[in-house]
Amino acid sequence: MYFSFYANTQDLCGANHKMDWWREARFGLFVHWGLYAVPAGVWNGQTTPKWNGEWIMHSMKIPVMDYEKLATQFNPVKFNADEWVLLAKEAGMKYIVITSKHHDGFAMYHSAVSQYNIVDATPFKRDVLRELEQACKRYGMKLGFYYSQAQDWHHPGGSYKRDEQEMKYWDTSVTRVSFEQYVEELALPQVKEILSNYAVDIIWWDTPYGMTEAMATKLIEPLNCKPHIIANNRLYRPWKGDFETPEQYIPPTGFDYDWEVCMTMNNTWGYRADDNQWKSSETLIRMLADVASKGGNLLLNIGPDATGTIPQPSVERLQDIGAWMKINSEAIYGTSASPFFKLQWGRCTRKKEGSENLLYLHVFNWPQNGKLIVPGLKTKPSYAGFLQGNQEVSCALSDKGLIITVPNQAPDPINTVIKLTFTGDYTIISNKPKSDNKGNILLPAFTADIHNFLTIPANQAYLNTENVFDYIANWKDNRIKVS
Ligand code: GLC
């Protein structure tokens, strides 16, 4: 049984274009920042389990009174809203989503509903979300608030992962109250507060543990008079919201619904001092192209520390992405999913501008023989050239598709973008495997996504295209998966 608001909220509110800027944006910054940045992954000398930073209160079973004391130590004097917003802007990001209250229940804005907030409970006493809101306004950045509407480990009625099942609430000094009471006296008034006091464009719900239909209906109500606000799908199951939220993975193909991948640069959302497993800039730049080529947005996370500093490796990666975006952003903004099923050498995004059709070829694996084959493309473009330096390249149609003549060296070894312009429509014969008359589908090796487990190139599986038949070579480790 789906309940009444099983619908895209834009249908309810009659505002049809609210997703326009979001689809155009394709790239945003996620910020997980809260009291958990103080312990930074260590409690009483014990390190929290892997991949766990903002979950420290839950995983270390920290009593409420002890966790609350972190507020008195939270004094992020290095916080500078302008710097954060400019860093995102320079990276080519168009929106920021920040934790207004994570599962630990601490409000990062000045809440009149609970004193457990950054202004009333910390020596810092500044409303960082107000400062960010104003900086976003100054620099034309859209803003979203993450709000943990169900899980709240601080309020005695908030839900928590594994409640009811194997785990009793860890702090036995707390007299528990009902979930309804929590929603009525904390979550709902805070949601109303956020929506009426701050200029937000997105509300980002999370982890609907214990959420009931009745409570979800109440929480969604204040959105009805804010038809421009976009909401994700995590309020309540099976509510779809305005977009889906694949977390920490890139779906192999896109969806027929708006979607946004949220992804960390290392392994943790909130700051954790010992998490040094950073994804490379190369991985992240290609990831952005990959997500756009499937029609989605990428929300890339940072976890600032307790001084208000963004970890240097994150800054460097954002700057590297920004350098790539300076040249290539038109291949990301406002693009739609690739018209090709699969491309061996990389990805494709597309766009329509007036009567012109544009294809952007994102080349990750540069051809060794100076010929880049665009399989199945039957129309010759009126223009083909690199975005870098606007250098034109020559191309010709063949029975395999369009063959583009390229120099031996990739202009950008991470992702060189070649733009193809068509004055009208183009035709592509799809290379998507079809079923034979018995219903069998042969999946050629080139259709596979290879998920390497190890980072050392010599230990990675790869697609070998040097022989008559393509095959996946060097697949020696059973942790390597192919999908
Ligand atoms: C999860 C986690 C959380 C993080 C979020 C980001 O659901 O509970 O800590 O905020 O994912 O998507």
Describe this structure in words.
With 483 residues, the chain is an alpha/beta fold. Helix 9 links the parallel strand 5 and strand 6. The longest helix has 19 residues. The protein is elongated. It has a 7-stranded parallel sheet with strand order 7-6-5-4-1-9-8. The chain starts with 8 loop residues before the first helix and ends with a strand. The N terminus is likely disordered.
Short description:
The chain is an alpha/beta fold and 483 residues long.
Keywords summarizing the entry:
483 residues; 18% strand; alpha/beta; 3 domains; seven-stranded parallel beta sheet; elongated; 20 strands; Immunoglobulin-like; four-stranded antiparallel beta sheet; disordered N terminus
Give the structural class: alpha/beta
Annotated CATH architecture of the largest domain: Alpha-Beta Barrel
Portion in helices? 10-25%
Please tell me what the overall shape is.
elongated
Q: How does the major sheet shape up?
A: 7 strands, parallel
- Walk across the major sheet and give the strand order: 7-6-5-4-1-9-8
CATH homology group of the largest domain: Glycosidases
| Rg, Å, rounded | 24 Å
Tell me the distance between the termini: 33 Å
- The low-pLDDT segments are 1-15
Rounded average pLDDT: 93
**Strand tally:** 20
Figure out the total of helices. Answer: 12
Bound molecules: alpha-D-glucopyranose
Our estimate of the beta-strand percent is: 15-25%
CATH topology of the largest domain: TIM Barrel
- The domain tally reads 3
CATH class group of the largest domain: Alpha Beta
